[in-house]
């Protein structure tokens, strides 16, 4: 299930860093305290809204911003949503937002192959060991790139506890085909499709390791259950840190959205602070 959470922005012009996944990851961990996450897999997007760029980062000027949170564990999503709506206001970096509504993104059809776009960087390995291998560049059209993602996906599916050994064995059809025309176009324009990002500890404040993330369209041949898993739980590594969220290419996700009833919880609290010193970014 993918939940699209709509917030009202209280202070237009407030700023977040260009890549703010660590801030959101810390917020989400705070909101999941009390839920036994266990082997559950989840994923989330960046904060989406109308922005302008400055040296400090992204300035948000839309009246509303959205966050997509997804998992196959509906109980965890309901727990997360109920906790969000116990707060009148939340501080995310400089942004002050109030939760307003939730929509559910209905599952799309998954033709084989399905063409995806990356709405957050795709990471193929993300060990927190600082040996430099996390930053290695792997050619997207190489067998090695596809093999890394296959091994990562099968490992995550197996450890989710949702699939039998027989099912995992049946998911052998798997191939990632990058849109090389798009990649070559970026190269000619001197634009990057692969960058170095920083993984942080659970507090979201202390850097732990650097990783390489890729952002480009690709097609995937895989079993329908594999498509379902990566669409809901993210693709590749560091998905609970906000990496590897996908969407279907050439499709408007808003056309798939339906209203979702917000689970009830305790009375609203004044504010949840996510404490980051902007001067230290």
Give the gist of this structure.
InterPro entries: Cas_Cas6_C (IPR049435), CRISPR-assoc_prot_Cas6 (IPR010156), CRISPR-assoc_prot_Cas6_N_sf (IPR045747). This protein has 281 residues and is an alpha+beta fold. The protein contains six helices and 17 strands.
Could you please describe the fold and organization of this structure?
One of its GO terms (biological process) is defense response to virus. GO terms for molecular function: hydrolase activity, acting on ester bonds; RNA binding. It holds the Pfam family Cas_Cas6_C. It comes from Thermoflexibacter ruber. InterPro entries: Cas_Cas6_C, CRISPR-assoc_prot_Cas6, CRISPR-assoc_prot_Cas6_N_sf. The protein is an alpha+beta fold and about 280 residues long. The two termini are about 35 Å apart. The protein folds into two domains: about 1-105 and about 255-280, Alpha-Beta Plaits; about 115-250, 2-Layer Sandwich (Alpha-Beta Plaits), CATH 3.30.70. The protein has six helices and 17 strands. It is about 25% helix and about 30% strand. The strands form four sheets. Strands 1, 3, 6, 7, 8, 16 and 17 form a seven-stranded mixed β-sheet that branches.
């Amino acid at each position: 299930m993918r939940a699209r959470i709509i917030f009202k922005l209280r202070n237009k012009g407030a700023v977040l860093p260009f890549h703010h996944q660590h801030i959101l990851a810390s917020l989400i961990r705070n909101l999941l305290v009390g839920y036994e996450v266990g082997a559950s897999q989840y994923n989330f997007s960046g904060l989406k809204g109308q922005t302008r760029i400055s040296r400090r980062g992204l300035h948000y000027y839309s009246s509303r911003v959205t966050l997509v949170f997804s998992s196959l564990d509906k109980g965890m999503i309901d727990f997360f949503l109920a906790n969000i709506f116990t707060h009148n206001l939340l501080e995310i970096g400089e942004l002050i937002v109030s939760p307003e509504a939730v929509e559910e993104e209905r599952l799309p059809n998954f033709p084989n192959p399905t063409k995806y776009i990356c709405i957050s960087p795709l990471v193929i390995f993300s060990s927190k060991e600082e040996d430099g291998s996390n930053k290695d560049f792997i050619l997207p059209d190489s067998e090695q790139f596809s093999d890394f993602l296959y091994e990562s996906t099968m490992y995550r599916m197996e450890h989710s506890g949702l699939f039998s050994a027989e099912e995992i064995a049946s998911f052998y059809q798997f191939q990632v085909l990058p849109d090389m025309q798009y990649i070559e176009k970026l190269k000619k324009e001197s634009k990057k499709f692969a960058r170095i990002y920083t993984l942080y500890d659970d507090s979201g404040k202390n850097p732990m390791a650097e990783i390489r993330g890729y952002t480009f369209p690709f097609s995937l041949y895989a079993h329908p259950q594999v498509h379902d898993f990566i669409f809901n739980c993210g693709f590749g590594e560091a998905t609970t840190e906000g990496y590897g969220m996908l969407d279907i290419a050439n499709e408007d996700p808003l056309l798939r959205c339906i209203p979702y009833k917000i689970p009830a919880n305790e009375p609203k609290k004044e504010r949840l602070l996510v404490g980051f010193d902007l001067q230290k970014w």
